[in-house]
């Protein structure tokens, strides 16, 4: 499994959960990619995300918390090979993506070409992706709609309409609070993140 995976213990038979998307939710609700059926687990408990620096895990304000290698998780951290994550009765052993010496990826298909974008959609997307491309922080966050609107001298409503079309074009159909981050990550992966406009 070139993308890495979790080995799940403590909740029935041991199973392997591959990390095939850029994000994986963990929680009691059956809609999570990794559901854990226990009253000790919040409905939406934790989020695992792919960043350029590796896979990270963050607790989403759960009632009983999350531990990594026995230490409380706060607020988020990069996962290392063989890290042990405990959520309620479940013990998740992280297995890092397999890498060949001297290479960054192994058996990974090339990213598809980005969709056709209007000039304004490209401007919105470029500003959204800037924190992910420039680096400097391990867990970047996309700018708020208000900040994008101010930078482009348009209304927040206009930015939301452009984002809605971008979600459709990049195939992001789920409506959740991490969707802007997922859009930015997908745009960077598919080479649609720039170039950045020059400062006035």
* Helix percent band: 10-25%
Poorly predicted tracts of residues: 100-109, 196-200
Order of helices and strands: EEEEEEEEEEEHHHH
Radius of gyration: 18 Å
Annotation, overall tally of beta strands = 11
Termini distance? 47 Å
Q: Please count the helical segments.
A: 4
The order of strands across the largest sheet is 2-1-11-10-7-8
Based on Cα principal axes, name the global outline. elongated
Summarize model confidence as the mean pLDDT.
82
Largest β sheet strand count, sense and barrel closure: 6 strands, antiparallel
Estimate the strand proportion: 15-25%
Name the structural class.
Answer: alpha+beta
How would you sum up this structure, described in words?
With 200 residues, the protein is of the alpha+beta class. Helix content is 24%, strand content 22%. It has helices at 119-134, 145-152, 156-169, 179-189, and strands at 5-9, 15-18, 23-27, 34-35, 46-51, 54-59, 67-68, 71-72, 76-78, 84-87, 90-95. The strands form two sheets. A six-stranded antiparallel beta sheet has the order 2-1-11-10-7-8, with no helix packed on it. Strands 4-3-5-6-9 form a five-stranded mixed beta sheet, with no helix packed on it. Helix 1 (119-134) crosses helix 3, helix 1 (119-134) packs across helix 4 (179-189) and helix 2 (145-152) crosses helix 3 (156-169). The chain is elongated. Residues 100-109 and 196-200 have low confidence and may be disordered.
